[in-house]
Amino acid sequence: MARPRNTGGTVYRRKETAFWWVTYRARDGRKIKESSETTDREEAERFLRERLAARDEGRLPAILSSKNLTFDEWMDWFLEKRSKPPYHSEKTHHQNLNAAKLLRPIFGPLLLSQITPEAVEDYIETRLTEGRRIHTKFGLIRRGKIKPATAHQEFRVLRHVLNVAMRQKKLEANPCRLVEFPVSVKNSTRKPHYILDPAHSGV
Prior knowledge:
The chain has helices spanning 41-56, 60-66, 71-81, 90-107, 117-129, 148-167; strands at 9-13, 20-25, 31-35, 132-136, 139-143, 179-180, 184-185, 188-189, 193-194. By secondary structure, the chain is α+β, with helices and mostly antiparallel strands. Strand 7 and strand 8 (188-189) form a beta hairpin. The termini are far apart.
């Protein structure tokens, strides 16, 4: 009679690092090894329990993908597979390309799991305060300020790109859901603020 497979996991040390590591099996039986990124054993055990819960709930593939996929890599896939016709019009694809040129320098090197609501908020605030980029014979200069609608369009593209990542199980949660775009009041812009995500409100 075959021995039943261990559905739990193990916390252990590795010689080359001070962090605790965990090992466990995915639903398909594949063995997974991860650093808990903590030197505290209790925190490492909590990390393992969270991973096992994510596995049992079917959330593990998205969590692991978001730790190995950069925004640049995902944006390349999105622009090729989900931005062009027949998914979207040529005009929308062009808008996505323009937004990508501005989003990549900030988010490009980050793993999808590293994009936080704070990072999105900082991006919006920076875009709303920096000058418009104008190409002249003397080079690129900045003058005036961009329209809030321009920054809002970039935010919508970012939100959509990450929503597609969620649907493709490359990301567990979209950080844009926790950020509300600022509104203009008497020509002044209110700072972005977090909104409560019903999925995490416990209601």
